[in-house]
Amino acid sequence: MMFNYCNLVMSLLLIVCNKCLCDICKTCICSALNEGAIIDCHDRHLGINEALNFDLLTLDQHQPLNKLILSKNNIVLLPINELKNLKHLKKLDLSQNQLDNIHSDIFKNLNDLEDLNYSHNLLWGFDISILNIDSSLSKFNLSHNQISSLEKSSENITTKLKVLDVSHNKLNNLNFFDDLLELEYLDLSFNKLFSLPVKSLLRLQHLKILYINNNHLLDLNLQNLPLSLLELYAENNFINCLSLQKSLIYTLNIQNNRIFNIYKNLTLLEGLKDLNINGNSLSEFPDVFLKDLETLDLSFNNLTMIPQTVSIKNFPNLRILKVNGNPLKDVKIRSELRLERFEINFVKTIEEIDKETFLMLRERKNDCINITVSNNKKLSTIEENVFQHMNICSLDLSNNCFAHLPSKLFDVNVSNAKYLINLQGNPFICNCSLQWMLSALIPKLYSIKPSLLEDLRCAGPPPLTNKRMIHWYKWKGKVFCGDFSHFAERMTVNIASISSKQVVTFETSPGMIAALATAITLFAILTIIGILLTRRMITKKKRINRRF
Ligand SMILES: *[C@@H]1O[C@H](CO)[C@@H](O)[C@H](O)[C@H]1NC(C)=O
Ligand SMILES: *[C@@H]1O[C@H](CO)[C@@H](O)[C@H](O)[C@H]1NC(C)=O
Ligand SMILES: *[C@@H]1O[C@H](CO)[C@@H](O)[C@H](O)[C@H]1NC(C)=O
Ligand SMILES: *[C@@H]1O[C@H](CO)[C@@H](O)[C@H](O)[C@H]1NC(C)=O
Ligand SMILES: *[C@@H]1O[C@H](CO)[C@@H](O)[C@H](O)[C@H]1NC(C)=O
Ligand SMILES: *[C@@H]1O[C@H](CO)[C@@H](O)[C@H](O)[C@H]1NC(C)=O
Ligand SMILES: *[C@@H]1O[C@H](CO)[C@@H](O)[C@H](O)[C@H]1NC(C)=O
Ligand SMILES: *[C@@H]1O[C@H](CO)[C@@H](O)[C@H](O)[C@H]1NC(C)=O
Description:
Blueprint: H1 2-18, H2 22-27, E1 29-33, E2 36-40, E3 65-69, H3 80-83, E4 91-93, H4 105-109, E5 115-117, E6 125-127, E7 139-141, E8 149-151, E9 163-165, E10 185-187, E11 209-211, E12 219-221, E13 231-233, E14 241-243, E15 251-253, E16 274-276, E17 295-297, E18 320-322, E19 337-339, E20 341-345, E21 352-353, E22 361-363, E23 369-374, E24 381-382, E25 392-396, H5 412-415, E26 420-422, E27 428-429, H6 435-448, E28 458-460, H7 484-494, H8 510-547
Parallel strand pairs: 2-3, 3-4, 4-5, 5-7, 6-8, 7-9, 9-10, 10-11, 11-13, 12-14, 13-15, 15-16, 16-17, 17-18, 18-20, 19-22, 20-23, 21-24, 23-25, 25-26, 27-28
Antiparallel strand pairs: 1-2
Protein name: LRRCT domain-containing protein
Keywords: Leucine-rich repeat, Membrane, Repeat, Signal, Transmembrane, Transmembrane helix
Organism: Lasius platythorax
């Protein structure tokens, strides 16, 4: 294979250098693969004179040219007469230029063209009719232009188009795809659509993936969408009316809309795997059975409790559940659940997690669970045996309001967490009751992932305010139980090695300042060396990765 490839490159290069292809290969990158030659002229300033500088006529004469990349060249005018001789061209990338129309000759003459990329140009319209019957185009990218309407000047056109991307334009109506019957992938996101046509999408009986996110849609009716659809992305619209029908859809994203209710007929989506309703106004969830559901995101709705209907009985395959940002009165899980990941963040209303709260929650069979309870600004109490019954993979309790955590919370199962225990950003009161953290937990965290200690600080008592716990890593005495004056004195020795951000509040002498300055300088130098070394390692890794 390798030998074969080298041979091809060699023979191509020979041909190239014999004939006058040399020109373009001096400026662009020419290479050859089994399926034909590739010329990559990305960002070569070819369009400076408003037309291509190269004589493309000769390009295709010796070795079929498979792919031509002319992206990012400020091309304003396409030299159609020259391009049209590239009879074998399959892929043409014209993205990131200044083209404001599409010449129909492209399709008339380049009969083998399969993949055409016009993204990031200045197109304002397009007549779909020029994709005539002979065109073999299957992938067409018109994204990031100024298109407000796609027209169709003649009837009965048939195309082989499978992938069409018209995202990031100004489309406000859709009367064009009646004839794009082979479409499998359609991206209409980031346009100005207020509604979807009632019937014409139904005709796209091969359509599998549809993006209609980031438009101005007011309703979504699956009855108007083809049965073949598997993935539907409708997030960031103004949908308040969702009508369902039997469908094979397995991914449905209706995040950030205005949906108040999901009814029992959600069960019509029998194959649903991934349901994202984040950012709507649900106050309950229907009692439906969905055999394949794996991910359910109910975050940022109007739930006052975690719905009892979310259960292993209803969703035997549920892996991930998110209920972030709801006005929950409590976090209690009221039905049996077996998950891989459970998230409850940004809940302003909860103050306490008691031993009942997570009793019904545990890991999936032969697995472990990631639990994230983070950024709940009033959450200040957690009982000691909350996680006892679970096999925890990672536990994130960061940025809550815990002044104290019971040591028994971190029994064998929890402190053996494979990945992480994140307790950062809590206002811990570092008194004798928290000494166990210093003695038992800090060394463990240090060995799992030192970065977990970066923002693990004491909020009090006053002499310790804002100090990092890692200060006292490996100290023998029980620092948090100790005598503070003695302790503050010893702290000066250690302080420079911890942080440059820290406010130094103790009284100073000139000698101490000098010692401190030296230490800080040393620390800075070491940090820089560290950064350089890591960078190097990363580039090295990247290089290694690239090889495979
Ligand atoms: C344009 O499309 C081609 C073919 O699909 C692709 O290889 C290329 O990366 C695209 N260019 C950009 C800038 O996305
Ligand atoms: C179309 O081009 C844009 C921008 O270059 C790119 O991000 C997008 O992935 C492309 N679409 C498809 C379907 O390849
Ligand atoms: C389009 O096709 C329909 C049915 O196949 C036919 O009746 C009609 O005459 C055709 N129109 C044109 C303009 O060819
Ligand atoms: C789904 O259920 C709701 C409420 O019961 C009802 O109003 C709606 O018509 C149903 N939709 C379909 C498509 O059956
Ligand atoms: C949330 O639900 C309460 C009643 O439970 C209702 O009064 C309130 O308007 C709802 N808020 C939103 C944003 O839907
Ligand atoms: C659990 O957490 C670990 C560490 O953060 C991560 O690598 C893993 O992908 C997570 N698993 C799931 C199902 O989220
Ligand atoms: C740890 O978790 C496993 C699985 O949930 C459980 O069987 C075991 O009793 C737990 N161990 C402890 C010490 O709690
Ligand atoms: C430590 O501080 C916590 C929180 O303020 C308090 O509940 C606890 O009683 C204190 N423990 C000791 C030994 O002072």
